[in-house]
Each structure stands twice: as structure tokens, then as C-alpha cells.
Specification:
The complex is a heterodimer of chains A (306) and B (370). Chain A is mainly α and 306 residues long. Chain A contains 12 helices and 4 strands, in the order H-E-E-H-E-E-H-H-H-H-H-H-H-H-H-H. The longest helix of chain A is centred in the N-terminal third of the chain and has 45 residues, at 3-47. Chain B has 2 domains: 5-245, P-loop containing nucleotide triphosphate hydrolases (Rossmann fold); 254-365, OB fold (Dihydrolipoamide Acetyltransferase, E2P), CATH 2.40.50. Classes of the chains: A mainly alpha (306), B alpha+beta (370).
């Protein structure tokens, strides 16, 4: 007899728990479905539609967009899109690598500064990114244009032909990407450096490691989570970058972001654009997957969270 | 080739190399008002279990770091095994440290952690594996070798940190409060084990702790530090029973220190009354204090008819198992007394109890000022 009220209270508790769970997760789930899942499904379905006569997506469902993306056109196969994809990957890898090389010492240097100075230093790193991307790109265009000090210097060193500028070029694109994404690498690296356990460095030194070896054994692994987070924050948006290659590449160093943009705007071939952005998405996910594997191996089985 | 740990153990007659340590006028300050070491002169004998004891901020850890080469003294000379190592960087000293936080490398396995020092010294892989296995056997870690650090308990990490340092067979092993993070039972066990390992290896151990019990249990000699100066350097028994000054006495847990009001030939006037001292007399200075160790106070019937007899009131009494602890009041002075538990009655608060202190148990110590 005394079991019944107990059972009822358990059921009541369970109901309350479920309700609590639903109430706390539903708003977030709703948000994600509305603004991520549904648009993504729309984009995916778009990629399988046919481009209509007046540039409107229409039925039937085909693989036309993907064939076009793979380079098969009216005139047979052309490697143009493949080049764009490879160029995007190459630009991303080079820019990200250089950002790492530049940001690592900056982040370390900031942690060495006086406590009161550090927020100011971080602010100096971040402030440029508050200016509009387009305006910053125009700034670089002026700096790298023909007959500017930088271009003249490059000419006198024989790096570029006479009366040419450093802009437009793929060099300018790389520079623009580095400039754009540096803060996104400095901040997570700084966070990693700030909580660095220096006794590990001392332990390595005590156990006969030279300063350089101690860095590799005791400092680098500790900054790895910050480094990987920075790589994702830099590489993913850099891969899809539109403004920088458009303005600093001068229509010659196009990246995949420009391909997508041109299909949705100028060319008005939405299925083609959707297919290209799907390709971007797949490439990005693949990259993140590889980074995670790499991080896990370097982190010694410990989850290096991205 | 260096002899392995087990060979050493099997062959105890063979003398292992162990190094003495000499510090001369070592000074270290981190800023103008943060003086960590204020002119330390010290000789640690080869093969000795030596403890640096003191409260936090007394400079004991700084001294250890200077021995490891992790800090450089502002002045003075550090020699290990007769060689001046003051300017030698840590990775070129045959000195290894067991860190307070253990400082194990989280991304390496237990085996790689233990073998790290050997790898850095360029010991080849086969030899390294052999010595790591041997060490793991010695320190009872063998089943854990393939584990990751984050899978281990505090006690296991402590052993690995010890193994990682010992396997390098340094001339000197430094231990920075290695047991402070462990619970009492494990701590006692490891105290005994550390002492056993040190005796068997004959290595010079320099141990840092703030726990006077731990220091007394383990050490051959103890240096008590305060304010960057050595207050007393002696055997555990001497430090405990004949503290050099009031600081050492208080730090060793002796709370009964009485001011001397007036002194005669063999009698002193104190706040609790006149006290008779040992006949041989002591060299005394102004500001000296009389030390009464709690366990030397006789209570109850034992006190009757003895010299230095007083009437005390029990303020509080505590049953501590092996002994009773009393907070007493004599005149206006608070005294602590320990009475070993031999089945006698425990006095209660407000009991009037006769007490006595044998003159031979009394001594004077220099006051804080001296």
C-alpha cells in the first residue's frame, strides 16, 4: 500500500526532469533548426535543382550543378574550378602557417609583459579588425600599388617587373589574409600561454633538456589546444574568404568564395553556387576532422578540444 | 656505463657515488623588500638525508631551486661534490628534483615520463627501457607503465615523480614538499619508504618541508630556516630537545616559553614563580626565555615532593589516544602539558592539579630578538 505514493512521486519526478530538460534545450534547438538546419537543407536541395532559362532554380532534380562544378561545360572539361579549389587550399594553408609563425611570438611576448600592460597589448592586436574589411583591403591596395615605396623596394630587389605593383597579385591576397586573421590566432594562443604551467618547463630543464628541447616537450604541447583553436578560427573563414581575393587579387587570384559569390550574384546560377558552397562545406569539415585527429595524436590521447 | 639500481641494491657493499653540497654566503632577493635568502652558509654531507624545515616564505624552496639551478643566487657560491656549480644551468647538473606538484608531462605515458631524463641524456632505447623497467620494479609501478598520467591517483603520481628523478641516478636528489598533497595514511607510508630508498641507495637527499614531524621522522640532519637565515642546523633530536632560539622552539611545537624576570645563581624568577635550573648552569643572555617542553611536565601525584612544583588549574583537557593534552593555568600563565596514557584518570576542566618540572628538563633559549 505504501508503495503507490512512492511510485507516483518517482513518476512525477521523472516528468519534472523531462520537462526541465525540454524547457532548457528547446529554445536553443529551435534556434539551430531555424537558422542552421533548414537553410542548410535548402542549400543542399538547391544544388540538385536545374538552372532555369532566366536564371531561376527549377525542377527537374539533376546533377548538372555538380558536373559543372567538376569542370564539364559546353566546351568539354576545363580545369578552372579545380585550380580555384586548389588555389583556395594553398592560400589558406600558406596564410594560416604564416599567421601561426607571426602570432606565436606575439602571444608569448604579451604574456611576458606587465600585468597592467597586457590588456592594452591585446587591444592593439584586436583594434584593426574593428574596421570594415573592405576599407582595410583598400588600404592595402594603396600601400601595394605601383610606384609606392613598398612596390619600388620590391622592384629594386628584382622581385617584380618594372612599373608593376605588388598589387594585384596572389602575394597581396596572402598578405591580406594574414593581416585579416592575425587577431584570431593571437587571442587563443595568448589564452594558452597565460595558463602555461611553468613547472613543467622547469621539470624538463631539471631532467637534462636544453632550453630548445624543453620548449618542444614542455611549452609547445601546452599551447597546442590554443594553436588548434586558432588554426580553425583562421583557416575556416580564410578558405571561404571573398573580399580579400576579390579586391587584392584583382580578378586573377580568385578563391572558392569568389566562385560561390559570382554564381549567386553575377552569373545567377544558383544551383551551381549551392553545389560550390557544399564543396566548401565538405572540404572544411574534412579539414577540421584531420585537425582533431592530429590534435589527439599530439595531445597524447587527451582530448584537445576545438 | 652506470650501474643499474637493482645491481646497486644487490651489491650493497659497493659504495655508490654521492656528493656533498657546500653553500657559502648564498644570497637571493627577488626585489628590494623580498629577500629570500640572507647569507646562507651550509654543508650537506655526502649520502645524507638532509631536511630544510621552515614556515612558508622562509626561503627553503628558493634554496632548493638554487641547488637545482632553477634560480641563480645574487651572491655566494654553490658547490656540489667539490665543484663550483653556481653558474651551471639545470640541464648540466647531476641533480634531479621531485616537484611539489609532481610536474609530470601529461602528454607522455608513465614509461616515457620515467625515461625522460635518460632520453635527454642520450641513453639509447634498449638501455633506457631496461633501466625504466628496473626502476618501476623497484618502486612497485610496473603495472602502470603504459598508463597515462591523468589516469593515476595522487600517490601513484608521487611515485612516478620519484622514479623519474631516481632513474637518472643523480649525485643529489632534491625533494620539494613531495608528500604535502597526500592524505595522512599514505603520507606516513611514503615517509618510511623514502627513508628506506635513501638508505639503500646511499644518495644525498635534500628534502624540503614545513612539517616538523615529517622532518624528524626522516632526516639525518635538519636545518631550520626563517627569514632567509638558518636558525639551527642539527640532528632531529637536538633540534627538538635543544632548540637554539625561541623561533625554533615554537616551530618545533613547544608553546611553553616563559620570560625571565630576574636571575640568580641557579634560580630564575618567572611569571609562574621561581624555577630551579640544572646545576651546571647555562650561558644566558638578556631576553632569554625558559623553555618547558609539554611532555616534561609531571602531573598529579607524580609531582608531589619534587622540585619546581606548582599548583595548576586545568582549563581544557583533550584525549589524544596515546597521550592526554592539557591546557593549564599557573598564576596567569597558560601552559600546555602532555601526559602519556598509562590508564590513569583524565583530569577535567577546573580540576586543581599539582605539577612539577625536573630541573634537568629545563633549558633557556635565546628570545626572538636575539
Amino acid at each position: 500500500m505504501s508503495k503507490r505514493p512512492f511510485e507516483r512521486s518517482v513518476r512525477q519526478l521523472r516528468f519534472r526532469e523531462t520537462r526541465h530538460l525540454l524547457l532548457t534545450t528547446l529554445p536553443g534547438a529551435f534556434w539551430i533548426v531555424l537558422f542552421l538546419v533548414l537553410p542548410s537543407l535548402y542549400l543542399v536541395s538547391m544544388a540538385f535543382l536545374t538552372n532555369g532559362t532566366y536564371g531561376q532554380p527549377s525542377l527537374p532534380l539533376t546533377f548538372d550543378a555538380f558536373r559543372q562544378l567538376a569542370g564539364f561545360g559546353f566546351l568539354g572539361w576545363s580545369p578552372g574550378n579545380l585550380y580555384t579549389l586548389l588555389r583556395s587550399l594553398w592560400q589558406t594553408v600558406v596564410a594560416t602557417a604564416l599567421v601561426v609563425v607571426i602570432a606565436y611570438p606575439i602571444a608569448y611576448y604579451i604574456t611576458l609583459c606587465r600585468q597592467s600592460l597586457r590588456p592594452i597589448m591585446l587591444l592593439l592586436v584586436v583594434v584593426p579588425s574593428w574596421t570594415n574589411q573592405v576599407i582595410r583591403a583598400f588600404g592595402w591596395m594603396n600601400l601595394l600599388a605601383p610606384d609606392t615605396p613598398l612596390s619600388n623596394l620590391a622592384q629594386s630587389l628584382g622581385l617584380i617587373a618594372p612599373h608593376m605593383g605588388l598589387f594585384p597579385s596572389s602575394f597581396a591576397v596572402t598578405l591580406g589574409l594574414i593581416y585579416n586573421f592575425l587577431p584570431f590566432m593571437v587571442l587563443p594562443l595568448y589564452a594558452a600561454f597565460e595558463k602555461l604551467d611553468t613547472t613543467l618547463v622547469e621539470a624538463a630543464r631539471d631532467l637534462y633538456a636544453s632550453p630548445l628541447k624543453a620548449f618542444w616537450v614542455a611549452v609547445f604541447p601546452q599551447t597546442l589546444p590554443g594553436l588548434l583553436a586558432g588554426i580553425v578560427l583562421v583557416a575556416v573563414p580564410a578558405f571561404g574568404m571573398y573580399v580579400v581575393p576579390e579586391l587584392l587579387g584583382g580578378g586573377r587570384s580568385l578563391m572558392i568564395g569568389n566562385l560561390v559569390a559570382s554564381q549567386f550574384a553575377g552569373g545567377s546560377n544558383w544551383p551551381y553556387g549551392a553545389a560550390a558552397s557544399l564543396l566548401m562545406l565538405v572540404a572544411t569539415l574534412l579539414g577540421i576532422f584531420l585537425l582533431r585527429r592530429l590534435g589527439r595524436r599530439a595531445g597524447g590521447g587527451e582530448e584537445v578540444v576545438i | 656505463m652506470k650501474r643499474g639500481i637493482t645491481e646497486t641494491l644487490a651489491n650493497e657493499s659497493t659504495a655508490r657515488k654521492a656528493s656533498s653540497i657546500t653553500l657559502e654566503g648564498v644570497e637571493k632577493s627577488f626585489s628590494r623588500d623580498a629577500i629570500a635568502l640572507d647569507g646562507v652558509d651550509l654543508t650537506i654531507k655526502a649520502g645524507e638525508f638532509f631536511t630544510l624545515l621552515g614556515p612558508s616564505g622562509c626561503g627553503k624552496t628558493t634554496l632548493l631551486r638554487i641547488l637545482a639551478g632553477l634560480d641563480t643566487p645574487n651572491a655566494g657560491v654553490v658547490s656540489i661534490g667539490g665543484v663550483d656549480v653556481t653558474a651551471v644551468p639545470p640541464h648540466k647538473r647531476s641533480v634531479n628534483t621531485v616537484f611539489q606538484s609532481y610536474a609530470l608531462f601529461p602528454h607522455l605515458s608513465v614509461e616515457d615520463n620515467i625515461g625522460f631524463g635518460l632520453k635527454m641524456q642520450g641513453v639509447d632505447k634498449a638501455e633506457r627501457t631496461r633501466r625504466v623497467r628496473e626502476m618501476a620494479e623497484f618502486i612497485k609501478l610496473s603495472p602502470l607503465l603504459s598508463r597515462r598520467i591523468h589516469q593515476l591517483s595522487g600517490g601513484q603520481r608521487q611515485r612516478i615523480a620519484l622514479a623519474r628523478a631516481l632513474v637518472c641516478e643523480p649525485d643529489v636528489l632534491l625533494l620539494d614538499e613531495p608528500l604535502s598533497a597526500l592524505d595522512a595514511g599514505l603520507r606516513g607510508e611514503l615517509q618510511v619508504e623514502l627513508q628506506r630508498i635513501q638508505r639503500r641507495l646511499g644518495m644525498t637527499f635534500v628534502f624540503v618541508t614545513h612539517d616538523q614531524q615529517e622532518a624528524m621522522v626522516m632526516s639525518d640532519r635538519i636545518a631550520v630556516l626563517n627569514d632567509g637565515k638558518i636558525q639551527q642546523l642539527d640532528t632531529p633530536r637536538a633540534v627538538f630537545e635543544r632548540p637554539a632560539n625561541a623561533f625554533v622552539a615554537r616551530f618545533m611545537g613547544h608553546s611553553n616559553l616563559l620570560e625571565i624576570k630576574r636571575r640568580g645563581a641557579d634560580r630564575l624568577d618567572t611569571a609562574i614563580g621561581p624555577l630551579t635550573l640544572p646545576a651546571e648552569g647555562e650561558h644566558m643572555n638578556d631576553g632569554d626565555l625558559v623553555l618547558i617542553r609539554p611532555e616534561t611536565i609531571e602531573l598529579g601525584d607524580d609531582a608531589l615532593g619534587q622540585p619546581n612544583r606548582f599548583d595548576a588549574t586545568v582549563v581544557e583537557s583533550f584525549y589524544r589516544g596515546s597521550h592526554f593534552e592539557y591546557r593549564l593555568q599557573v598564576e596567569d600563565v597558560a601552559l600546555t602539558a602532555f601526559s602519556s596514557n598509562q590508564g590513569q584518570k583524565l583530569f577535567a576542566a577546573d580540576d586543581r592539579v599539582p605539577i612539577s618540572i625536573s630541573p634537568s628538563d629545563l633549558m633557556t633559549v635565546r628570545g626572538e630578538g636575539g
